[in-house]
């Protein structure tokens, strides 16, 4: 499997770490874009859990990106760099730079399939709805109709980081703990991302993707309790619940991986 972690070509924001993993052999299949979750990275979400290897072994070219403030990407100071609308524009540029062409009937290499997890699922939902000519199928992991980042208590998090004042909101405390677990994360950049996301709340009914969707979550994932609400918005959504899995460990499920690969190949 060939892989490089250079930026694709001129055009993609040089602050973003974008990588392509080549298919294991000659292939004419459409590429797959992987979008990681909040406080994660392409390496943690997709490489270490075996997704990149599994996809390339099936003949797929895989495109990954570290979101701003995550992984090997830069952490810009300006809030606009973290807004969902800017991130969707970055994704479009990345696909253009990767020479992804619009969907063409009978051409199995046209368009792109997308797999997102958590925040990556939110971005995929909105991107698929706004760029239907590019997106063939999508797999959304750990999704919900709400957005836990929108409910994040920024003031409490900042007080905790300043003087250790305990955070009362359990969701906020949990998200901040996750953000601080990864040494490469810029916590203050992630708080800037949360503030940007608060300014562009996720309203899935405003723009619904119309391509086939596979919605996947652990049945012990509290953040995905509203997954059925997303499924009801789409006429082409399938749902997979993973027994005993949580928001943290669902992405490592072999069932998740194998079902997603079969779904995208349909």
TrEMBL record:
Q: Cite the InterPro entries for this sequence.
A: AB_hydrolase_1 (IPR000073), AB_hydrolase_fold (IPR029058), AB_hydrolase_sf (IPR050266)
Q: Name one Pfam family in it.
A: Abhydrolase_1
**Cellular component terms (Gene Ontology):** membrane
Among SUPFAM superfamilies, the record links this protein to: alpha/beta-Hydrolases
Residue stretches spanning the membrane: none
AB hydrolase-1 domain location, by residue? 31-160
GO molecular function annotation: catalytic activity
| PANTHER family the UniProt entry points to | HYDROLASE, PUTATIVE (AFU_ORTHOLOGUE AFUA_2G14860)-RELATED (PTHR43798:SF33), MONOACYLGLYCEROL LIPASE (PTHR43798)
Q: What is this protein called?
A: Pimeloyl-ACP methyl ester carboxylesterase
Organism expressing this protein natively: Arthrobacter pigmenti
